[in-house]
Amino acid sequence: MTDAYTRFVRSAPGRTIAKQLGLPRPSRLLRREDRPEPVLGPVVVLGRSAGADAITSLLLAEGVDVRRRFDELRTVGSVVAVLDEVAAPAELGEILLPLAGAMRSLAPGARVVSLSRPATGEDPARDAARGGVEGWLRSLAHEMRGGGTANGVQVADGVPLDAPSVLGALRFLLSARSAYVDGQILTVDGAEGSAPADRSRPFAERTVLVTGAARGIGAAIARTLAADGARLVLLDVPGAGTELARLANELRAVPVQLDVTSAGAGERLVAQLRERGLVLDGVVLNAGITRDKMFANMTPDRWDSVLAVNITSQITLMEALIAAGDALGPQPRVVSLASTSGIAGNAGQTNYATSKAGVMAFVAALAERLRELGGTANAVAPGFIETEMTARMPPLNRELARRVSSLRQGGLPVDVAEAIAFLASDEAGGIHGQTLRVCGQNIVGR
Ligand code: NAD
């Protein structure tokens, strides 16, 4: 799905006009079906630490073409900058500056990923270096061309660089599955998690519930998880029953018609799971609505309905699933849908932003609770995604929202689905309470 402006600037006359006027020209983003290889090579691993050696060995073991210098490489597919041992800002240049001379050799859709440690407040010089990595990374993401992205993984002290979630996050950020994740830093704070037995079907033998699954992002999540081997329980309101049944048939999934805001919805869901003998390994809390109005015109029904669907239902659903004792598997993965509006705020969306900021705080607290059970809770915050929800925006606002990201285009539902599939995977067991933005580095918020 390409918007009309993008189609125009990719046409021969449009290209000339856009060039002359200096208009943004969005690059085609390569996704899973366009770029089957998991890691675009050759990969240059920068850094001299033991961690850099370990990452090099692991990539080599997977058959990836790995180098430690740019040398005479004409094209570079990916760059991994390993900065885990930097002790002062003066040490950053030696590791990072070789990439400056190679920026023009980066392939279309290239990936740059930094591996570093978070500031701890213990050592001012070391924290300055660790914090500095974030500024470098976020600026580099703005400078990437050709649909390339730059993202980082921050690994808590004490967690080894070859922990499953570090490698999982690295693989995800190097792959085409992270096409619309840009300028983001994901924190790994635990050594939990495990690599899937079969990389082509990481959700084999796993059962995952997706709420709001009948269309849009929810349907894309269902399709992505099904392609990854999951058994699915797809939930939506009775009014979307026909669409839901069609998708459930297509994906051989179990449909559940339920309004998540109705009284006792959680208990009814638990009863349906028991009836079918289903235990959930993953829960994707995707059902959501917008009822936009400036706060001066906000009415109780607009306010209440948005909070009820977008956050209160998530709290009650999770309470019921946890309380049931037999509804969740041994290492449950919960992924919720936040929004960049919840991070930066947005005029006309006080109700929506309240609910979505609530989601981020909710998953952080839920993560603590689920950690005791061996589980995780995280969120994704989509920016502008092309769905029926955003198709209803006023045309000018919609056009602007598409262009204010580093990738100069809206994302697709599948981009959000891919990030959710990663966070819901066994491999992401060391990632707790995070919100990962899928926004093409939209300029709103941090
Ligand atoms: P959508 O409106 O296309 O789909 C939402 C689905 O949720 C629908 O199938 C709807 O029937 C279902 N739903 C709504 N109320 C429900 C209820 N009470 N019980 C059960 N199901 C219910 O929306 P979308 O664009 O696919 O958005 C999906 C999620 O992503 C939402 O949480 C949304 O806030 C979030 N999000 C979307 C965007 C975007 O750009 N589209 C950006 C940020 C966040």
From TrEMBL:
Pfam families: adh_short_C2
GO molecular function, one term: 3-oxoacyl-[acyl-carrier-protein] reductase (NADPH) activity
InterPro entries: KR_dom, NAD(P)-bd_dom_sf, Sc_DH/Rdtase_CS, SDR_fam
Keyword terms, alphabetized: Oxidoreductase
Residue stretches making up the Ketoreductase domain: 206-387
NCBIfam families cross-referenced by the UniProt entry: PRK08261.1
Family: Belongs to the short-chain dehydrogenases/reductases (SDR) family.
Stated name of the protein: 3-oxoacyl-ACP reductase
Species: Brachybacterium rhamnosum
